[in-house]
Amino acid sequence: MASNYLSNSALKAINRIGDLMIPRNGEFPSFSEVGGIAYIDDLVSYAPPADIKDLNLLLTILAFMPNFVLRWLLNRMENAMESSGPLAPIFRMLDVGLRGLIFSCYYTEKIPASYTGKKPLDIIGFDLTRVED
Amino acid sequence: MYDYIIIGTGPSGGNIAHNLFKAGANILVLEAGKLMNKKTFPRTEADTSARLYWGGGIEFDTDAKMGFLRTRVVGGTSIVNQCLLDRFDDIAFNDWKAESGVNWFTNEQLAKHYDTVEHALALHTFTANEMNRNAQLFTQSCDKIGVKWGYLRKGQSDCAQERGNDCMACLGGCHRDSKQSSYAGYLRDDIAAGLNIQTETEVTQIVHNGDTVTLHALQQGKPVTFQAKNIVLAGGAFGTTKMLLQSGFKKQLPALGKNFSTHPQFMSFGLFNEEIHACKGYFQTVASKDPILRQKGYKLENVFAPPISAAMLFSRTGAYHQEIMRNYTRMTCIEVAVRDENAGEIKVDNKGKLTIDKPFTAQDRRRRDEGRELIANILTNEGAKKVYASPFSVGLHLMGGSVMGTNSAKSVVDPEFRVHGYKNMFVADSSIYPNAPGINPSLTIMALAQKLSDQLIVANHGI
Ligand SMILES: Cc1cc2nc3c(=O)[nH]c(=O)nc-3n(C[C@H](O)[C@H](O)[C@H](O)COP(=O)(O)OP(=O)(O)OC[C@H]3O[C@@H](n4cnc5c(N)ncnc54)[C@H](O)[C@@H]3O)c2cc1C
């Protein structure tokens, strides 16, 4: 797993946060088990360069945080919609940014062949028929 | 030197480019996004967000409470929209007239322009046998509790429903060219016939030199310059307003950036015992059409969301998130779209970045809360075991920022679509909307663009 845009530490942070957001539970595999992060460059490459730089920095810092700090952060993010104060918009933005990355790499058609379990999109029963001609 | 440069290719720019091209004018079209087609539109939800949307997916207000969606591709936001095309009613036009002082904001005055647009596009009004289960439950429950609803009208030519096509896929660009985006409806054939268009070209500065206008742009990151006798700004509420702001027009136009509204939408999901499969078949066929709700300032739309978007609507992760997603196929969904006050402001910071202030006023909140309560009632009456109301709001209809009006202290564009004081700079896109109509905006954007096109063609003796 490597990225042309995000450092290895940043990728590690995404996997750790991803597993806190989507742990293995019943038929759902955990975020890191699915391995959709392998295609993260397909998403990140379209973001403005300044945003990629900020994301890399943030994730690299988060990679060195213990799990209890990450859990605290997720909690702040989850409650950010109802919170007020100067930091609330930052937590809200972080919430949407991180969940956006993680859900995009999980509820995806692009999953490495090394993952042999049921795909999250199949688990939730999402299948679109495209009649193309 | 071009006679006209048109910047942007959404419902506004697409219509104007088409009309001027057909009239034989010497035009150039500039578009920040790429040219894609039914074969190259993204095929996954994640790719759609990343590749088509400005900001790599979503843009926020400064408080990060509301997200805004707009795209950057030939065809503009009409590539991803549902293409529901409604004429305005008298309520909308009367409120526009009152706010702007523009006396031709009436259904009668715009009728011929609406007619022209409607004749050019393939339109379809849905019928009972085209409703999916999500729509059936919505309408049954509305009937029970006395909310009036109606079938929607969509720009589409052939969606292959009888062969099992699922229209939710067209949220990433229609892979059949059925949806009447400004690409499929106007530009595709014009480009094939030689329309002069330069894509991946973002206009960054407008310099007005009297009889001509110079445009500075970045084309795939490299600086380029264009010159024209006239320009038409069709970058949408954010795009057009941003171009004018970063070119320094705020000094002469104090209202620039003001009066932004967006019809904020709030979705609620209802959980059922039966399988609903709301993402199958036609995606949106019905909505509330109730004069009482119209007067109250909101409407209810029967919609759904693809998986990533559905997951994004709820902040809580872990088991709560998995409970919602496990039941994805057993959910129905209704959203309230608020006719909001135009209290927002579009600004550009000192790094040239767009910043949006969008206060959610007490009246907006009241409308949202009433709408949500009614939705909970409808869902429960449908038989929902549980209702999940999303705290997030999304603005899909970006309007205002360069509004039209008679008074140059309170508006940016005059009743002849000219930027006040500039005889050769025109705007006819969603940025000129004086306030929120509470009705799908695209058809009226195209009717206004049609009116401007006719005006330009007449002024140039048929060109
Ligand atoms: C998911 C979704 C569903 C919707 N559904 C409906 C619906 O069913 N019915 C309806 O009426 N409306 C709907 N809308 C809203 C509708 O699509 C917009 O109101 C409409 O497209 C606005 O038209 P416009 O021409 O003003 O701007 P846009 O369509 O946004 O087009 C502006 C174009 O200008 C380009 N541009 C911007 N700045 C620059 C620049 N500096 N240089 C060069 N190019 C630039 C952009 O890339 C873009 O292509 C929906 C919107 C969304 C997001």
Low-pLDDT stretches of chain A are none
Largest interface: A-B, 50 and 49 residues
Structural class category of chain B: alpha/beta
**Overall number of domains of chain B:** 2
| Oligomeric state of shown chains | heterodimer
* Beta-strand share of residues of chain B: 15-25%
> Percent range for helical residues of chain A?
40-55%
Head-to-tail CA distance between termini of chain B: 15 Å
Q: What is the residue-mean pLDDT of chain A, rounded to a whole number?
A: 94
Number of strands of chain A: 0
Structural class of chain A: mainly alpha
The count of domains of chain A is: 1
Q: Give the integer mean of the pLDDT values of chain B.
A: 96
CATH topology group of the largest domain in chain B: FAD/NAD(P)-binding domain
CATH architecture of the largest domain in chain B: 3-Layer(bba) Sandwich
Structural topology:
The complex is a heterodimer of chains A (133) and B (463).
Chain A: H1 8-21, H2 31-34, H3 40-44, H4 49-63, H5 67-78, H6 88-106, H7 120-123
Helix pairs in contact in A: 1-4, 1-5, 1-6, 5-6
Chain B: E1 2-7, H1 11-22, E2 27-30, H2 45-52, E3 59-60, E4 66-68, H3 90-100, H4 107-120, E5 123-125, H5 133-145, E6 149-151, E7 153-155, H6 182-192, E8 197-198, E9 201-208, E10 213-219, E11 222-233, H7 236-246, E12 265-271, E13 286-288, H8 291-296, E14 298-302, H9 307-312, H10 318-326, E15 331-338, E16 345-348, E17 354-357, H11 362-382, E18 386-389, E19 393-395, E20 425-427, H12 442-459
Parallel strand pairs in B: 1-2, 1-11, 2-8, 4-19, 11-20
Antiparallel strand pairs in B: 3-4, 5-7, 6-13, 9-10, 10-11, 12-15, 12-18, 14-15, 16-17
The complex binds flavin-adenine dinucleotide.
